[in-house]
Amino acid sequence: MVFLLQLQQIFLSPNQLIPQPKPIINPLISLNLTTKPKINPLAIAQNAAIRNIDSDVVAAAKSAANASDEEVLLPPELRRELMPNHVAVIMDGNRRWAKMRGLPVALGYEAGIRAVRKLVELCCNWGISVLTVFAFSSENWSRPKVEVDLLMGLFERWLKNELEDFAKAGIRMSIIGDSRKLPKSLQDLIDKAAKITKENSRLHFVVAVNYSGQHDVVQACQSIAQKVKDGIIEPKDINNFLVEQELQTNCIDFPCPDLLIRTSGELRLSNFLLWQLAYAELFFSHSHWPDFGEPEFLEALCSFQQRQRRYGSS
């Protein structure tokens, strides 16, 4: 009986048990990323032809290449020299977004996928090097099993649909967290995504799944302790750099985020990148994650660019 009630909470709206709402249009469509302008217009045209990019996009790219040396066009409110290298996001509010609209919680997560896709597109087009999103924490296993199974299924379906587009768009993908507890099919897909995209450099898209910031620090300490025990290093050799090399973010060129964004009005870190966020600028948005789009991201970046980062100095 408890399982049936949980199933109703996830897949049925609070005001209507039957029939279920008609599904929304599947949001898992291919990315529409603006092509990076190149110095040589001919090279742009050749690359565009290979990737089947529309001719009008090619023409725009050629024009941009001739008119400016900048790699991407930014909104006028932003300054290129002040752009963050690494943006991290705690995507909060999918369930609340659905419940406020009388929709099944499952549709809130589907809508959240659209917001992820849009943010990846913006980061690519605005020249951000690393985007890390908190998709599933180690504490989320305490949620009802039917909801956890839903999330795992959505993640796997999303990754299958997006992987080819990520590869074509020059996006590198990495997963951080303990993947051993994930379904075997999802583990295999994660490994495949990392291998296929490992040489890409336009954007490093990092997804934290079954991740805990505290456990990340603990496992780094355990690894360092073992190296001391084995005589590989001396205790006096332990420093910040050595710890960072043992954290799960050691696969990232810029492991420490410059800007952390959390949606849905919550004002906490929730065990996310605790070491890495030591000097990050924090931005808290009242928008629920499915509503977080270009205007909200632009607001966060403008706020970031107005701050003075002193790193402890006066």
From TrEMBL:
Keywords noted in UniProt: Chloroplast, Plastid, Transferase, Transit peptide
Subcellular location: Plastid, Chloroplast
GO cellular component entries: chloroplast stroma
Annotated GO MF terms: ditrans,polycis-polyprenyl diphosphate synthase [(2E,6E)-farnesyl diphosphate specific] activity; magnesium ion binding
Names of the cofactor(s): Mg(2+)
UniProt cross-references to InterPro entries, sorted A to Z: UPP_synth-like, UPP_synth-like_CS, UPP_synth-like_sf
Enzyme category, top tier: transferase
Gene Ontology BP term (one): response to cold
Protein name, per record: Alkyl transferase
Organism: Anisodus tanguticus
